[in-house]
Amino acid sequence: xxxxxGQKSFCIEISMRVEKxxxxxxxxxxxxxxxxxxxxxxxxxxxSVIKIDNGVQVFRDSKHxxxxxxxxxGSIPMAExxxxxxxxxxxxxxIWLKFAVKNTTSESIFLQFGNSELENVTCYVLENGKLVSIxxxxxxxxxxxxxxxxxxxSLPLGSHNPTVFIKINSGSVMxxxxxxxxxxxxxxINHKEDLFNGSMIGIMLVLIFYNFFLFLxxxxxxxxxxxxxxxxxxxxxxxxxxxxxxxxxxxxxGFNNSHLVKIIIAGTAASGIWFSYSFLNMRINAxxxxxxxxxxxLALTSSVILDILHIKILANKxxxxxxxxxxxxxxxxxxVMFYKGLKEAKFYILSWGVLVSGALVYVFTLxxxxxxxxxxxxxxxxxSVSEGxxxxxxxxxxxxxxxxxxxxxxxxAIAEAQKNERLIMEQNVELERKVEERTADLxxxxxxxxxxxxxxxxxxxxxxxxxxxxxxxRQFEIVSVLFTDFVNFTGIGETLSPTELVKEINVCFKAxxxxxxxxxxxxxxxxxxxxxAVCGMPVxxxxxxxxxxxxxxxxxxxxxxxxKEGGSFEIRIGINSxxxxxxxxxxxxxxxxxxxxTVNTAARMEQNSEKGKINISSATYELIKKEFKCKYRGKxxxxxxxxxxxxxxxxxx
Length: 653
Prior knowledge:
The protein has 653 residues and is of the alpha+beta class. Helices cover 54% and strands 21% of the residues. The model is unreliable at 1-37 (pLDDT under 50).
């Protein structure tokens, strides 16, 4: 009896040992070959996290009629996912997923969705073919219904070996990175992401405050526009990660809707256009692009309206397309502006290039072209923060330009103030002398005559004329003479009434007078549609050629802009430098004039110029060639002058 019992015990012991050995062998096989079935995932280590992608069974329910019973019965054929990341893009279909889990640990396991924008998620858990739990979650469900207090959608699958069916329908982009793990392993990943998101948002907030304080100091509205763009970018990061639901309004579910997310995304793109329009000075550098900007903003606004009207698929596609086009459009615009000479665009190009690159990496990752890791899945946030930092450098570089311009303006203001002070002192001395000599009425009349004389003659000549009753002709060794003439003036005059013609000429000549007076030139006269000015007399000026050339560019720019606004005229300009004789001729209606071959050659320079061009002689070229870029035209035959070397001035170095 005892022997029989002993033998039985021995057999049981041997049987148990064989059983344990067999279990260990199977467990090792599971570790080495974790998937025996295409839709089965093995969880063997509570420290690890498993990606649920290849092998998941997928079915698209376009009619929205199927129930869980249809799938449990096995009557619905499901296709295996072999594309890596589960990404269904924009669709109104109900997406059904199926997979099984073999849990060899003693811990409960959880399923976590990487996309926090999914609106409705229903999870059906089966054990031994029986439905044991149904769980619902998503951005359209109240926060308190979530199993875990997190911005991520996390669902418990139990501690056994469940078969899981998931139904998802959402108006947002349907990419679904799925993670399977224990509470400990998922918490570790989420904690890492929280630290990352907190750092990114913290940097963005610092940039917002920094640029806002710069706005308060400088009062340049560009910084305020940039603050708005940074705020929208930060809000977009906040909402796309689902942090608004987790941190802002857990108990106010009405605020958590997809419309608000779309508004923020569209607002980010629109504020980027608004900021770039000012930063790149498109109003001056590329005025026609305002229509492109308006079209893109209209497209972004339309996507929001469509989303509010619940036309979600079209709204998402329009928003994604217009946002993507906006990014590439602004990058290309920045490159073009840089090559046109806008030096501040260098940091702009770099920052926008980083943003576009990060967005491309993110898109490629979602479509399985790049392997998912912490960097690639967060590439868009990293790129957004990098862009914010680089654009802040660009604005800092703009401050240097602002300081330089302010310094120049201050010097000019001081010089002008000193000049005005000198003039005021001279007038005071003159007035005091007049008070002693004449009555108040005579002084007033004399002042009128003095002012009229100064409007007709240069101040030095006027003083000489008052003092001596006449002005002697003078020889000036080197001056620069400018002639302008309207292209096809006779033909244009035939299309306008006399009143309209005089009005057009008056607008242009008034602008010329302002430019001439501001740049230090002396107006000589107008002859019909021709305008003549000189620099370097009656007071000598070593920079006479440079000042005349700059004034010519200002005149060209004014005529070009006025022509775009509806003006009739286009202009050609000629400049020559050399000696002249100046003086007053006649007794009645006398005028101050200049004579000499220099004047005649300047007129020939204008006659041989082209529309919108500044044509100069070799004499002027030798004086300005170090400051201005010129194009040699060769020797050109000029009326009564023979062949003369001529140059077109293209711009200042």
